Amino acid sequence: MDKSVTAVPHSVKRWQLSGTDYDPETVRTLRSFLLLCVIQLFEDRVKLVIRWFDLWTDGQRKHLMSSLLGRCTSSQLRDLLMETVPVTRLDFTTVLPRFLSLYVLSFLNPRDLCAAAQVSWQWRFLAEQDCLWTKRCVRRGWFLPYSPGTREYGAWKNHYIDCVSTLHWLPPRKAATHYRSLHQRAGETAVEEERRQGRKESCIGAASSETGPPGPWRHGGSRPPSQ
After folding, report:
1. How far apart are CA 99 and CA 81, in angstroms?
2. How far does CA 41 lie from the centroid of its chain?
3. In which domain, by residue range, is 69 found?
4. Which of 51, 84, 192, 225 is the least crowded, having the fewest Cβ atoms under 10 Å away?
């Protein structure tokens, strides 16, 4: 064996490091080229899916949309709605089904419902539905005296407004002069009730004074020992 030839164990690694395969500029160029290829491939596939989507039937389109939306996260759906709805300025009552629009309007109070009914004919038709006003009336004991017709809507709303307009909004003191309080007897005025309450309190005070002075323990002293 020729002893003049000596093996250099790291010579191959030096050659690889000093060669063009590991040139940083070449690596960046290759990465940029691969990234452009991936982007171009993605755009081509998107155009192909859109071309297919235009040729599909309504059922096939709904199936694809439900599959895509089912795989989206809640944040992605929220961002999609925030980007789409303000740009198009769509009326939710014309896009959503009627039961969803009524569910949204059910969170409004009666004053806001009356204000919503003045936006448009569509909003008025939804804001005057009986399902929004029936529970409000029944909860307060305001029952409709007749059965609305099949083509009649807004009966419960009008009944609610009529009942509210007939209420007497009075403070407690002024209401006591017009209506009896809970402790007032039938046919008794407010002055007679005050006199009766005063006599009752004086009788209670006289009865407590006849029992004698209280024990010393009621004035802070020690209780008597138990026998």
Report:
1. 20
2. 42
3. 24-84
4. 225
Separation of alpha carbons 30 and 42, rounded Å: 18
User: For residue 7, what are its two tokens?
Assistant: 């093996």
Domain membership flag for residue 222: no
For residue 111, the number of C-alpha atoms closer than 13 Å in the C-beta half-sphere is: 0
Q: For the residues 134-152, what does the mean pLDDT come to? A: 82
Closest to 140 (Cα-Cα) out of 109, 170, 164, 176: 164
pLDDT at 15: 47
Contacts of 92 (CB under 8 A, 6+ apart): 101, 104
Which has more confidence, 8 or 202?
Answer: 202
Residues in the chain: 227
Tell me the two tokens of residue 148: 């609305």
Alpha helices in 56-179 (DSSP H): 58-70, 74-88, 92-95, 98-105, 110-116, 121-127, 130-139, 155-165, 172-178
What's the token pair of residue 102?
Answer: 């009524």
Asked whether the beta carbons of 99 and 106 are under 8 A apart, the reply is no
DSSP structure string for 11-67: HHHHHHHHSSTT-HHHHHHHHHHHHHHHHHHHHHHHHHHHHHHHHS-HHHHHHHHHH
The total number of structural domains in the chain stands at 2
Longest dimension (CA), the chain: 136
Residues 126 and 76 in one domain: no
